[in-house]
Write a structure and sequence with these properties.
This protein is 52% helix and 10% strand. The chain is mostly helical. Among the domains are: 58 residues, Terminase, small subunit, N-terminal DNA-binding domain, HTH motif (Arc Repressor Mutant, subunit A); 62 residues, no CATH class. Helix 1 crosses helix 2, helix 1 crosses helix 4 and helix 5 packs antiparallel against helix 7. The protein starts with 5 loop residues before the first helix and ends with a helix. The mean pLDDT is 81.
Length: 190
């Protein structure tokens, strides 16, 4: 493997910050005017691409965040059930009694005091608790993409009856006939 220059090494390390090659080139000390071109060139050089992959692998080991981690977290979110945080009467259980998954993935929690009356007659009548749930649909889309379910992608069958992509004589005749019908209808309508 070719030895990287100090600037190339810095580019690799800066690239991992935000995966923006142009900004990584600038932060590594390359000219702003040519940063986009330099970044592209750097990413296409095998020894630089290999170093970036090596650094990413090191980061995965350090953080213990890899594809399995992400997938497991997405599955946890998908399996969250509101009954885990509600009492029988529909009120919220104390947060300390919530399963960790709820405490970790809750998107937002607002607590407002409710008052009635004015001045000295003002009395607190309760609390309004608002919980923002994680977006389950977005979560399922991410899960589907991760494991390539592609449940949200339309599929088209372009193969012919014999399994090839080549049109059959029967298919060609049908298309030819349909085109002729359309042309005839158009000439009658003109």
């Amino acid at each position: 493997m070719s030895k990287l220059t100090d600037k190339q090494e810095m580019f690799c390390r800066e690239y991992l910050i935000d995966l923006n090659a142009t900004q990584a080139a600038i932060r590594a000390g390359y000219s702003e005017k040519t940063a986009k071109e330099t970044a592209y060139e750097n990413l296409t050089k095998p020894h630089i691409a290999n170093r970036i992959a090596e650094l990413k692998s090191e980061r995965v080991k350090e953080t213990k965040v890899d594809a399995n981690y992400v997938l497991n977290r997405l599955v946890e979110i998908d399996q969250m059930d509101a009954i885990d945080i509600l009492n029988e009467d529909g009120s919220l259980k104390p947060i300390s009694m919530w399963p960790k998954v709820w405490r970790t993935y809750l998107s937002g929690f607002d607590l407002s005091e409710l008052w009635e009356g004015t001045g000295e007659d003002r009395q607190q009548i309760g609390f309004l608790k608002k919980i923002k749930w994680p977006d389950k649909v977005k979560n399922l889309e991410l899960l589907g993409k991760h494991i390539e379910v592609q449940a949200f992608k339309e599929k088209y069958d372009h193969s012919s009856s014999d399994g090839t992509m080549s049109p059959t004589a029967e298919g060609r005749e049908k298309r030819k006939s349909r085109i002729q019908e359309l042309l005839n209808a158009k000439s009658r309508g003109s």
